[in-house]
Write a structure and sequence with these properties.
The protein is of the alpha+beta class. It is 26% helix and 26% strand. The protein starts with a strand and ends in a 7-residue tail after the last strand.
């Protein structure tokens, strides 16, 4: 089985192939965020297309699992203690079977879904709270 080769540009890991997006979502529970404009209606902002941008946590987890390889810029994450805590939290939640997406819309760091993300309501919005003082 081929390991997907993804592009890293400006610190972001991009997926530009629909089959790879499907593989990441179904086999690895990695959701990412579609950021591209839709080719048939580029001026709307309700539905987005490729590329899919991975959270740094998602990319680091896939690299740790040897599920992807990267082309382009070097990807050095986590870099700080805060990043390491966030990555540890993300890995723990992912290991418990949650689908995890960005939580900024609801004021958290992550949104947790007990089943397929976006096919059910959000189960929890989770802030990654750490006291750095």
């Amino acid at each position: 089985m081929n390991t997907p080769r993804l592009c890293c540009a400006n610190g972001q890991v991009l997926v530009d192939d629909a089959d790879t997006v499907l593989k990441l979502r179904t086999e690895h529970r990695i959701v990412g965020t579609l950021e591209g404009s839709h080719p048939t209606n580029p001026l709307q902002n309700n539905y987005f297309g490729l590329p899919l941008i991975l959270l740094p946590e998602e990319a680091a987890l896939l690299l740790e699992q040897h599920a992807i390889t990267l082309d382009g810029d070097a990807f050095a994450w986590p870099e700080t203690e805060q990043d390491r805590v966030r990555f540890g939290l993300f890995k723990d939640l992912h290991g418990r079977g949650y689908f995890i997406t960005r939580g900024i819309k609801y004021g958290g760091d992550y949104l947790l879904y007990p089943g397929k993300a976006k096919s059910i309501d959000v189960w929890s919005s989770l802030p990654a709270i750490v006291n750095w003082n």
